Amino acid sequence: MTRIAILNASPLILLGRIGFIWLLPKLFPASILPSAVFTEIVAQNTPDTLTIRWEVDAGKIIVQTPTSMNVQTVSQVCRKDMALGEIQVLALALDLQDQKQTPLVILDDLPARKTAEVLGFPLLGTLGIIIRALRAQFIKKSESKQIIHKMTKIGAYFDTELIQEVLRIIELTNNNTLP
Length: 179
Description:
single chain; 2 domains; five-stranded parallel β-sheet
C-alpha cells in the first residue's frame, strides 16, 4: 500500500518555481493538498501556481479539507504563529490516522515540523524530497545539487548546516541502495 503524503505550500512552490514539481507525484502517488494550502498557492497567480493547478486538475494531487474537529485539536497544540495551511496539513494527518493510516507530512517550517514530531507523524521536507528523488533514480547527483542551488537562488532559506549535511548525504548516496 502506498503511503499518503500530505503537502504544505513551500515544497510545492519551490519545486514548481524551478520546474521539478513532477517529482512529487512520482515519489508520492497518493498526495493530498489541504484546501487552505491550495487557496494560498492559487492566490499567488504565478507561473508555478499554474503548474500546481495542472497537477491538481490532472488528479495527481488531491485537494481535501480536514475535519473541523482535528483542525481544533491541532490549533490547541501548535504555536500560535502557525499558518492555517500548516494546521490543515497536520489536521488531515490526524484524519487519516483516525482511519488507521500513517501519512507522511511534508513541511519545511520549523514550528510546524516540531508540532508534527510531537504528534508523532513521519516527516519530510523539501530537501528530503530531493534525497528521495536521487535514491529513487529520478534525478542524478549533479542534478540534485543544482536543484538545491536553484532553490536557494530563488530565495528558499535552509540552515547552512542542514544544506551541508544534505550535500554530504548526496555525495554518499549510491542510487542502487537505501541506507
